[in-house]
Specification:
The complex is a heterodimer of chains A (about 425) and B (about 350). With about 425 residues, chain A is mostly helical. Chain A has 2 domains: about 65-190, no CATH class; about 210-425, Orthogonal Bundle (MetI-like fold). Chain A is elongated and about 90 Å long. Chain A has a 3-stranded antiparallel beta sheet. Chain A has helices at about 20-55, 85-100, 105-115, 120-130, 150-155, 170-180, 195, 210-240, 245-255, 260-275, 285-310, 310-320, 325-355, 355-360, 380-390, 395-425, and strands spanning about 65-70, 140-145, 185, 365. Chain B has about 350 residues and is α/β, with parallel strands linked by helices. Chain B has 2 domains: about 30-110 and about 280-335, 3-Layer(aba) Sandwich (D-Maltodextrin-Binding Protein, domain 2), CATH 3.40.190.10; about 110-280, D-Maltodextrin-Binding Protein, domain 2. Chain B contains 15 helices and 13 strands. Chain B is globular, with a radius of gyration of 23 Å. The termini of chain B are far apart. The chains are: A mainly alpha (about 425), B alpha/beta (about 350). At the A-B interface, helix 8 and strand 4 of A face helix 1, helix 2, strand 2 and helix 11 of B. Chain A: It comes from Albimonas donghaensis. Chain A: It holds the Pfam family BPD_transp_1.
């Protein structure tokens, strides 16, 4: 034991009597409290965001359907004229028969009644008949989507107590709809159309398929371009480049590039890809090229970090048994760094998936009712589809916008989950 | 390895994209976000009934659409542009300079800009354009002087109006709706003021001094998204919203119109201009693309059909106010014949 010069020894063990220790512990507690508070606020924000999306969006995951017995009248529909034919009249007449007290001879009344059905119903019937012309002259039972105002009514989003003039559905239409419901003709199954239909002007038919396909093509292009380019650049900078002013300059620029606002890349793409190269507007391939510009710095930075994490002993051992530097990189260092590279790439691609601004500038916010079959066809992407729906006047799009955001979040969670899985499965600890 | 793959993929993409740029079987449409929903409806109907590939409709805004439209003739340029105002002389000149010589103009109908409040609001709103101007403009006459807007309550402007704070949500300056609102409501309201009437000012003075919305709080730019404005109105009973008539029409259960000088917006009042804040909608077609781009003629025919444009047609179900019957017939004949427009004044 050593004597202190001031005389009485400071008793660190006794917290109650040591102001120093008490202060230190208080600071520690405070720091922890801040941490917990920060975490709490972040969790709260996230749950408010997800909660409000779920509350407004969950109703879009079901869609009201009406089941009808349709007699395909050979006077209206003939095999010779297909795919043309009076399918709307056929539907209207079948609906009129199913409803009591409806005067089918009055066209205006009939029109009011058929507005219960989606505009797409006649095309659904047409497609069924075109697929099997033997149906003409027989009765078929088909289930078709209800139009948006009645979907809203069925989901309780239209208040029946509001005066008639203030809602989209009239009292008599509600009475008809209730009649159908009493017959058991109204159902509310899962809204597969939300995932497997392309965009439509009619909320009940609008879906995300076109956007999902568009995002897929754009991400594929982005991956094909940015993955090899990014890895190549990172390998050169990390393994081969001489340490010089120039390489420092390049490094700083790459780091800066990662922080450039995405709208700048959009303007660049508009001028270069569409303006100079004459590539088509709204094409996922142009979107993919633009996103590749943004993703590349992320991949380069992740790859360099992964390469750095491979211990030098591996390189030295390989060099020691006579491998060339190229062999060292491709046979030893790169395979070991791959988990880190893949993680970085997936995170970069997930960022690209959520990117909107550059896609707006190159026209990927167009209205397209069919999914792109190649990356050169026009398409939307998930975030731009959300942008279009958020701006649509129809009521049904309010809940569909939230649902689309949830789908996009789902894809992001999947991708980030994959990144975490790869990291925990494949990463080697030294 | 990596470099070989890279080179191959780059080559493949480059060659395929040039190949694709040379053949187009879809109609391309750009232009106003106000005309966008109507064009969407026609495009979808057209592709459903004919089985042709669906036209690609892009909402770029009126001015942006004109810029892209007037870049030239050829497959890489769009065939049709929508506009929420007539083509300007400068835009016509740009088109001519780039070889887009024969253009058909089609005025498809009218769109009302509505002012609306929540149904919760106890007061029956009826404003004159001068009152709208006094409430929302940056500068107004105060005691015979042209000064910054001092009004914060509606009843300061007119004692008959309710004693609530002025709060209006409207579109930002980038929006065509904002341009139309300034021109149709603010300029007209400004001209109704005694100060301006007696002051012997010309149109330039009005354009210069009556175009600015106030920025001290009562007028809130709510972004391009009209649905957001609708939601804000539902939350605040006394706030006034400014947006296209189709949004009011879709939300009649929660919103009610603010009458302008006793006239409330409806199909009739917008169509005959007795509701003053209404504007015509147009689209423009390149005649040189007709018969070259597949299905363009058929698409124009669908847009010009009675099913689409008549009162009660599927566009009027979306909020478009139809032309009168004789004007509609004249329009259909002119556009289907491909009559070129003359240079705008």
């Amino acid at each position: 034991m050593t004597e202190t010069s001031s005389g009485a020894p400071t008793r660190f063990a006794d917290g109650a009597r040591s102001p120093h220790l008490a202060r230190r512990r208080r600071k520690q507690k405070l720091l922890q409290a801040f941490g917990v508070a920060g975490l709490g606020v972040a969790t709260l924000m996230l749950s408010i965001l997800i909660g409000s999306l779920v509350v407004s969006g969950y109703k879009a995951f079901t869609q009201t359907h009406v089941t009808l017995d349709v007699f395909i009248d050979p006077q209206e529909v003939t095999a010779e004229r297909l795919p043309r034919g009076g399918f709307d009249d056929v539907l209207a007449r079948s609906l009129a028969e199913q409803l009591a007290d409806l005067d089918a001879s009055d066209r205006a009344t009939l029109r009011q009644a058929t507005s219960i059905l989606s505009n797409g119903a006649q095309f659904q019937l047409r497609d069924a008949v075109v697929a099997d012309p033997a149906l003409i002259g027989t009765s078929v039972t088909i289930t078709v989507p209800a139009s948006d105002p009645f979907d809203q009514l069925n989901k309780g989003l239209v208040d029946r107590d509001t005066p008639e003039g203030q809602r989209r559905v009239s009292d008599v239409q509600i009475a008809w709809f209730d009649q159908l419901a009493a017959q058991g003709a109204v159902s509310k199954p899962f809204n597969w159309a939300l995932f497997f239909n392309a965009d439509s002007r009619f909320p009940e038919q609008a879906g995300l398929w076109g956007a999902i396909v568009g995002s897929f093509w754009a991400l594929l292009t982005c991956f094909v371009i940015s993955f090899p380019l990014g890895i190549g650049a990172a390998i050169y900078l990390e393994e081969f480049a001489p340490k010089s002013r120039l390489s420092d300059f390049i490094e700083v620029n790459i780091n800066n590039l990662a922080a450039v606002p995405s709208v700048v890349f959009g303007l660049l793409a508009l001028a270069v890809f569409i303006g100079w190269f004459g590539m088509p507007r709204s094409a996922p391939v142009v979107g993919g090229l633009t996103l590749a510009l943004m993703t590349m710095p992320t991949i380069i930075i992740a790859t360099r970090a992964a390469l750095k994490a491979v211990p030098p002993s591996i390189r030295e051992a390989a060099l020691g048994v006579g491998a060339s530097r190229q062999q060292v990189v491709f046979d030893h260092v790169l395979p070991l760094a791959m988990p880190g590279i893949l993680t970085g790439t997936i995170i970069g691609l997930a960022q690209a998936l959520g990117e909107t601004a550059p896609l707006l500038l190159i026209g990927m916010n167009a209205f397209i009712t069919s999914a792109a079959s190649t990356p050169f066809d026009s398409a939307t992407a998930l975030p731009t589809q959300i942008f279009i729906w958020a701006d649509s006047p129809e009521r049904g799009f309010v809940s569909r916008t939230s649902a689309a955001i949830l789908v996009l979040l789902g894809f992001l969670v999947l991708m980030n989950g994959l990144a975490i899985f790869l990291r925990s499965r494949l990463e080697r600890r030294w | 390895m990596t470099y070989v793959k890279l080179a191959v993929s780059m080559l493949a993409i480059a060659s395929a994209s040039t190949a694709m740029a040379q053949s187009r079987d879809q109609i391309r449409i750009v232009g106003s976000s106000t005309v966008f929903p109507y064009t969407q409806a026609v495009a979808e109907q057209f592709s459903n009934t004919t089985g042709a590939p669906s036209p690609i409709v892009e909402s770029t805004g009126t001015g942006g659409g004109m810029q892209i439209f007037c870049q030239g003739i050829g497959e890489q340029h769009p065939d049709v542009t929508g506009a929420s105002r007539a083509m300007k002389p400068s835009e016509y000149k740009l088109c001519q300079d780039n070889g887009v010589e024969s253009i058909s103009e089609a005025m498809i109908g009218y769109d009302g800009l509505s002012l609306a409040v929540s149904r919760e609001s106890a007061f029956e709103w009826d404003l004159t354009l001068a009152e709208v101007y006094l409430a929302l403009a940056a500068q107004v006459p105060v005691d015979g002087e042209w000064a910054d807007n001092p009004y914060t309550m509606w009843n300061e402007i007119n004692a008959d109006l309710p004693a609530v704070e002025i709060l209006a949500y409207g579109p930002p300056p980038t929006s065509g709706t904002r341009d139309a609102f300034v021109e149709l409501a603010m300029h007209a309201g400004c001209e109704e003021l005694d100060y301006v009437k007696n002051g012997d000012f010309d149109g330039d003075w009005i354009g210069e001094n009556c175009s600015r919305m106030r920025t001290d709080g009562p007028f809130v730019e709510a972004g391009e998204n009209d649905n957001l404005i609708v939601q804000r109105l539902q939350a605040d009973a006394n706030a006034v919203g400014i947006f296209g008539y189709s949004f009011l029409y879709e939300n009649m259960d929660t919103l009610k119109a603010v009458d302008i000088a006793g006239v409330s917006p409806s199909e009739e009042t917008i169509g005959d201009f007795s509701y003053p804040v209404s504007r015509p909608l147009f689209f423009y077609v390149k005649n040189a693309h007709r018969g070259v781009i597949p299905n363009l003629d058929e698409f124009i025919a669908e847009y010009m059909s009675d099913d689409a444009l008549e009162p009660g047609g599927y566009l009027s179900e979306r909020g478009l106010v139809s032309l009168s019957a004789d004007r509609l017939t004249a329009l259909q004949d002119a556009v289907l014949d491909g009559a070129p427009m003359s240079a705008p004044e």
